[in-house]
Amino acid sequence: MTLKMPLCTKEDLSEAVKLQKRAQYEEERKSRIFNARQRLFGLDLDALERQILEKKKQRSIQIECDKRYEEQEQLQKRLITAKEKELEKEKRIVDSDLNYYRCRYQRLDQRREYDLNDPNFLKKAKPARIADDDIMLGVSSAQIFYGEDLHRNERQVRQREQQRAWLDQQVKERKQAEEARRKADSVYIESVNCRDKHLEEMAKSDHNMRHQITHKIRQYNINLAKQKQANRERAKRETYEDDMAEIYNMLSSDMLTENPDVAQSRLNPNKKIAFMYRGMTPDELVEFRKGQEQQLTQTLQRKTEVQLMNKQWEQYAINMDRTLMLKQIEMDRKHKEQLDELVRANTKLAVEQDQQRKEALVQLSNAVSDEFYDQFNKNSR
Fold first, then answer.
1. Looking at 43-57, 123-137, 173-187, 313-327, which range is the least confident one?
2. Three-class SS of residue 359?
3. How many helices (H) and strands (E) does the chain have?
4. Is residue 26 part of a domain?
5. Is Coiled coil among this UniProt entry's keywords (predicted)?
C-alpha cells in the first residue's frame, strides 16, 4: 500500500499496516461468509477426518501398549503364584518329614524318663527271687524285697549307652536338618534373585519400548508438522491462483458485461435467471402493464362475486334462524301443555288415592290410632 503523502513517519507506516491487515481480514471474512459450502457446514471436514484418524491411531497404539503391560503383569503373577506353590509344597514336605521323624524316633516309649512313668513297670519288673540258687539271697534264705533293683549297674550302663546313641542320632539329625534348611534357603534366595533379575530385564525392556514409542511419536509429529506446513503452503498457493482466476472470470463474465442473453433459462423459455437478470425491455414492460391491468380487473370481478355470494349466504342464514326460532317456540308451547296435562292428571290421581285411603281406614276395625305412636320415644331407654 502506497501513501500519497510528501513525508511518511513511523506512526503513518504502522497505521497503514493496521489498515492493510484490517482490509485483508475483511476480505477473508467475506470469502468465508460468501462461500456456500463453508457457510452450510462450518467446518473443515478434511482436517477433522485427519484428526480422527490420528486419534484412532494413537488410541490403537495405547491399547497395544496396555495389552503388553497386562500380559507382562499376568506373566509375573503366574511366576509368583508358581513360586509360592513350590515353596508351599516344600514346606509341606518338611512338615511331613518332621512328623514322620517324631512318630518314628520320638515316641513316648523312647523317652529317657519313660521307665519312671511306665504304667506297666510292675509287670515288667523281676520277681523277688529268680531261683532257689539265687546268689543274691542271704544266709538266712530271706527273700528279696520289692522295689530293689537287681540289675542296677547293668541297667545304668545300658541307659548311658542308649542316651549317648540318642544324643549322637539327634546331633546327626539336627545337622542334617540344618543342612537341608541351608539348602532350602539357598534355593529360595537363588529363586528370588532369578525373579528380581527377570523383573529387572522386563523393566529394561519396558523402558526401551517406551523410549522407542516416544521416539516414533516424536518423529511422526515432526513429519506431520512438515506435512501440515507443506499443505498450508500448497493451499495458500492454490488459493492465490483461484483468486486470480476468479478475478479474471469476474472481469470477463456476463454479469459485468451485462449480456441479456445469459439471463434466459435453458429449461423454460418463459423463465429468467434471477441473479443474471438486468431488467425488462420496453416491450416487455408494456406487456407486463397490460397483464397487471387484466389481473386487477379479474380481481375486482372476483371480489364482487364473493360479496354477492356472502350477502346471499347471510340472507339464507337469517331465514334459517327465523325458521328455527319459530320451531323452538312451537316445541316449547307443546311441552308446556304436556306438563300442565301431567300436573292435572297427578292432582286427580292424588285425590282419588286419598279418598281410597280414608275409605280403607273406615273399613278396618283394628286401625292404628295416634295414641299407639305417642307411647314411643318418651325416655332414653
1. 123-137
2. helix
3. 9, 0
4. no
5. yes
Please give the DSSP secondary-structure letter assigned to residue 270: T
For the stretch 165-203, pLDDT in tens is 999 999 999 999 999 999 988 888 888 888 888 888 888
The pTM (predicted TM-score) of the whole model is 0.23
pLDDT of residue 116: 81
Q: Which of 26-35, 177-186, 355-364 has the highest mean pLDDT?
A: 177-186
Quote the CA–CA distance of 120 and 173 in Å, as a whole number: 31
Q: Which three cell numbers stand for residue 337?
A: 301443555
Instruction: Identify any residues that bridge with 272 across adjacent strands, giving them in sequence order.
Output: 264
Whether residue 143 contacts residue 128, with contact meaning beta carbons closer than 8 Å, is answered with yes
d(CA 274, CA 264): 10
**Full domain range(s) for residue 60:** 50-85
Question: Do residues 142 and 157 make contact, with C-beta atoms less than 8 angstroms apart?
Answer: no
Q: Which three cell numbers stand for residue 3?
A: 501513501
Please calculate the CA angle 289-290-296 and round it to the nearest 5 degrees. Answer: 90
SS3 268: coil
Query: Helix (H, G, I), strand (E, B), or coil: what is residue 295?
Result: helix
Q: 66 in a domain, yes or no?
A: yes
Please count the structural domains in the chain. Answer: 1
- Chain CA centroid to CA 309, Å: 69
Q: CA-CA distance, 317 to 315, in Å (whole number)?
A: 5
Q: Is residue 61 part of a domain?
A: yes
